[in-house]
C-alpha cells in the first residue's frame, strides 16, 4: 500500500469516527433527556458517578494486564461514556460543555509539544519530558501555587483512591532519589512494619493499630510498584481464586457448611487448593 493510499484510508476512517461520535453525543443527550431519558441517569451527578469511574478505570487496567484487546476496546468505551456523562452533567449545570473539554485538551496537547506543532524538531525522550514539565509548571503558575513537592502531592492525591495515591507518591518521590534499591530492602521494611503492627495489636489501641496497618499497606503497594504489578489487579485475582476454592469447600460441605469447625475448614481448604492445582496443571 502506498503512503498516499494509507493516508486516504486513515482519512475515511477518521470521517467515520466523527459520524460515530456525533451519534454518541446524541445518544448521551437522549439518556439525559428530562422527559424521555433514563430515570437512573437523570439522577446522577459528578459525585454519584465517581465510584463508577473508579470501577471502569480498574476494569480497563485489568484488561491491559490481561492483554485482552477485545476487553480493552470495550472498557475504553465504558470510560468514554463516563467522560460524556460528566460533560453532559456540566452542560446541564451551566458549568462547561463537551466542546470546552475537547478545546482545552487540544490546547494542552499543542502547548506542551512545541517541537511538533510550533517548530518541527526531533528531540530526545529526556528533552521531551523536560519540556513537558517546564511548560506544565509555567501553565500552573499562580499566586497560590505551591512549589512544595509534598503539598503538591497532597493536592493531587486527595480525591484519588488511597492505593492509587500511594502509587502516585512513590512514582513522584523516586524521581528525586527517594527510592528503593532492591526487593530485599522492601521486604526488610515490610517485616519491620509487620512487627510494629503486632506490637500495636498488643496495646489494643485502635488508633495505633490503624496507623501501623496503614504503614504495612503502604509498604506493600511500594513493593507492587517496584515489581511493576497493579495491586488492585493482583487483589482481584486473589478474590477470584479464593471464591473458586470456597466453591469447592461448599460442594464438599453441602448443607453442613455452617457446622464446620476451623479445623474442618483448614482441611477442606487444602482439598480445594490441591484440586485447583490439579485442574490447572
Structure, briefly:
By secondary structure, the chain is mainly α. It has 13 helices and no strands. Helix content is about 75%, strand content about 0%.
The CATH superfamily label of the largest domain reads MazG-like
Our Rg estimate from Cα atoms comes to 25 Å
**From the coordinates shown, what is the CATH architecture of the largest domain?**
Orthogonal Bundle
| Oligomeric state of the chains in view | single chain
Q: Count up the helices.
A: 13
Shape: globular
Q: What distinguishing features does this structure have?
A:
single chain; 281 residues; mainly alpha; 4 domains
How would you describe this protein?
The chain has 281 residues and is mainly α. The chain has four domains: 16-101, Helix Hairpins (Orthogonal Bundle); 112-145; 149-231, Helix Hairpins (Orthogonal Bundle); 237-280, no CATH class. Helix content is 76%, strand content 0%. The longest helix is centred in the N-terminal third of the chain and has 29 residues, at 3-31. The protein is globular, with a radius of gyration of 25 Å. The mean pLDDT is 89.
Amino acid at each position: 500500500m502506498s503512503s498516499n493510499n494509507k493516508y486516504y484510508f486513515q482519512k475515511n476512517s477518521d470521517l467515520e469516527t466523527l459520524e460515530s461520535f456525533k451519534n454518541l453525543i446524541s445518544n448521551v443527550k437522549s439518556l439525559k433527556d428530562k422527559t424521555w431519558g433514563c430515570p437512573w441517569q437523570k439522577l446522577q451527578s459528578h459525585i454519584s458517578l465517581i465510584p463508577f469511574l473508579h470501577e471502569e478505570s480498574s476494569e480497563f487496567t485489568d484488561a491491559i494486564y490481561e492483554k485482552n484487546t477485545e476487553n480493552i476496546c470495550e472498557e475504553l468505551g465504558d470510560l468514554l461514556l463516563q467522560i460524556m456523562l460528566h460533560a453532559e452533567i456540566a452542560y446541564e449545570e451551566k458549568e462547561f460543555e463537551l466542546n470546552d473539554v475537547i478545546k482545552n485538551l487540544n490546547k494542552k496537547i499543542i502547548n506542551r509539544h512545541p517541537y511538533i506543532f510550533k517548530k518541527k524538531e526531533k528531540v530526545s525522550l529526556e528533552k521531551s519530558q523536560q519540556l513537558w514539565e517546564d511548560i506544565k509548571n509555567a501553565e500552573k503558575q499562580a499566586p497560590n501555587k505551591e512549589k512544595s513537592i509534598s503539598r503538591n502531592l497532597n493536592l493531587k492525591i486527595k480525591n484519588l483512591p488511597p492505593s492509587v495515591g500511594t502509587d502516585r507518591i512513590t512514582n513522584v518521590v523516586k524521581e528525586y532519589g527517594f527510592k528503593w534499591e532492591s526487593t530485599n530492602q522492601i521486604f526488610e521494611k515490610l517485616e519491620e512494619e509487620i512487627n510494629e503492627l503486632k506490637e500495636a495489636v498488643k496495646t489494643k489501641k485502635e488508633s495505633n493499630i490503624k496507623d501501623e496497618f496503614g504503614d504495612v499497606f503502604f509498604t506493600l503497594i511500594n513493593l507492587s510498584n517496584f515489581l511493576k504489578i497493579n495491586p488492585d489487579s493482583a487483589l482481584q485475582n486473589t478474590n477470584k481464586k479464593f471464591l473458586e476454592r470456597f466453591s469447592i469447600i461448599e460442594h464438599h460441605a453441602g448443607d453442613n457448611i455452617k457446622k464446620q469447625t476451623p479445623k474442618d475448614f483448614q482441611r477442606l481448604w487444602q482439598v480445594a487448593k490441591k484440586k485447583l492445582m490439579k485442574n490447572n496443571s
